[in-house]
C-alpha cells in the first residue's frame, strides 16, 4: 500500500509532476479537488475549505476551535484515503499526518523564488509584482500552517526523502525519480506494517473531532493515544462532567476496543 506525499512551493511546478506520477502509477490523487468532492460527507462547506486549507489559525478562541474542528475533518479524509493505499497526497501536511508510517515516501518540489514568481506571472497572466506578493504570501501561509499544526520547519530538507529543484531537473526526470524511488526494497518491505497504524490514527482523529464538536468539553487539549484500537485519555479536564463526556465520545467511535481513563480534574 504505497503512499507518496508531495510538498511543493507555489510556482515550483509541482502540480504537473504530481498528476503525472498519479496517472503513471494508477494511484489515487488526494489534492484540493479530491477533498472538495467528498467534503459534504464530512460536514465541510466550501467556505470552510477556503478558510482553513493550508493556512495557519486566526488566533481568536471561538473561531480557532471551529477551524481546528474543520482541519481535523480534512485530515480524516486524507487518513481514510491513505488507508486504501496506492495514493499520492498533495500538500495538506500529508507526511505529518502519518508519523512512524515507514512506507511513506516524502517528496519536496522547490525552485528559486524569482523563477517561481516568473512562472506564476506567466501562468496566471498577472503583473510580476502581484505574482511576487502572491508567491511570498503562499510561502508564509504554508510555512505557518506546518509550523503551527505539526511543529516543524516546512522547508527543512531533512524532513523529506527526495527534494527536487525544478530549475535544474525537468518534469520528466522528476517523475522518473519518484517512480523509481518508491520501488526501493526498504519501502516495499514496510508496507504490511502500515494499515494497523493508520487505523489507529483514524480512530484518534475521529475522537479529536468528537471532542472539538462536543460543547460539553471546554478544555480541548487533553491527550488521546491509540494503540491497537485501544484508547488512552490523559492530561486534565475542568470537571467530572467533562471527563465523562470525553470518555463517552471516545467509546462511541467505531473500532474502539477499550478506553483507559487517565484524565485528571483540575479546577480553575
Give the helices and strands, then pairings.
Elements: E1 3-8, H1 14-25, E2 28-30, H2 32-38, H3 46-52, H4 61-84, E3 87-90, E4 104-110, H5 113-124, H6 128-150, E5 162-165, H7 171-181, H8 185-190, H9 194-213, E6 223-227, E7 230-237, H10 240-251, E8 258-265
Parallel strand pairs: 1-3, 1-4, 2-3, 4-5, 7-8
Antiparallel strand pairs: 6-7
Report on this model:
- This protein folds into two domains: 3-182, Rossmann fold (3-Layer(aba) Sandwich), CATH 3.40.50; 194-265, Histidine-containing Protein, Chain: A (2-Layer Sandwich), CATH 3.30.1340.
- The protein is 50% helix and 17% strand.
- The chain is built from ten helices and eight strands.
- It has helices at 14-25, 32-38, 46-52, 61-84, 113-124, 128-150, 171-181, 185-190, 194-213, 240-251, and strands at 3-8, 28-30, 87-90, 104-110, 162-165, 223-227, 230-237, 258-265.
- A five-stranded parallel β-sheet has the order 2-3-1-4-5, with helices on both faces. The protein has a three-stranded mixed β-sheet with strand order 6-7-8.
- The protein is globular, with a radius of gyration of 20 Å.
- The model has no long low-confidence stretch (mean pLDDT 90).
Amino acid at each position: 500500500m504505497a503512499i507518496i506525499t508531495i510538498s511543493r512551493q507555489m510556482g515550483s511546478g509541482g502540480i504537473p509532476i504530481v498528476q503525472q506520477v498519479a496517472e503513471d502509477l494508477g494511484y489515487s490523487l488526494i489534492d484540493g479537488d479530491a477533498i472538495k468532492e467528498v467534503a459534504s460527507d464530512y460536514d465541510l462547506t466550501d467556505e470552510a475549505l477556503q478558510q482553513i486549507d493550508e493556512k495557519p489559525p486566526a488566533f481568536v478562541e471561538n473561531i480557532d476551535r471551529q477551524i481546528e474542528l474543520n482541519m481535523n475533518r480534512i485530515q480524516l479524509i486524507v487518513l481514510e484515503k491513505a488507508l486504501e493505499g496506492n495514493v499520492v497526497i498533495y500538500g495538506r501536511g500529508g507526511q505529518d499526518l502519518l508519523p512512524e508510517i515507514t512506507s511513506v515516501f516524502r517528496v519536496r518540489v522547490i525552485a528559486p523564488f524569482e523563477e517561481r514568481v516568473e512562472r506564476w506571472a506567466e501562468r496566471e497572466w498577472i503583473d510580476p509584482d502581484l505574482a511576487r506578493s502572491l508567491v511570498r504570501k503562499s510561502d508564509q501561509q504554508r510555512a505557518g500552517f506546518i509550523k503551527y499544526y505539526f511543529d516543524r520547519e516546512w522547508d527543512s530538507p531533512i524532513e523529506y526523502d527526495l527534494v527536487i529543484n525544478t530549475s535544474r531537473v525537468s518534469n520528466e526526470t522528476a517523475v522518473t525519480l519518484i517512480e523509481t524511488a518508491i520501488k526501493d526494497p526498504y519501502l516495499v518491505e514496510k508496507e504490511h506494517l502500515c494499515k494497523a497504524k493508520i487505523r489507529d490514527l483514524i480512530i484518534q482523529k475521529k475522537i479529536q473531532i468528537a471532542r472539538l464538536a462536543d460543547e460539553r468539553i471546554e478544555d480541548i487539549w487533553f491527550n488521546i493515544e491509540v494503540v491497537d484500537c485501544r484508547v488512552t485519555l490523559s492530561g486534565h479536564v475542568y470537571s467530572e462532567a467533562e471527563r465523562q463526556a470525553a470518555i463517552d465520545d471516545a467509546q462511541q467511535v467505531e473500532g474502539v476496543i477499550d478506553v483507559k481513563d487517565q484524565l485528571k480534574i483540575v479546577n480553575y
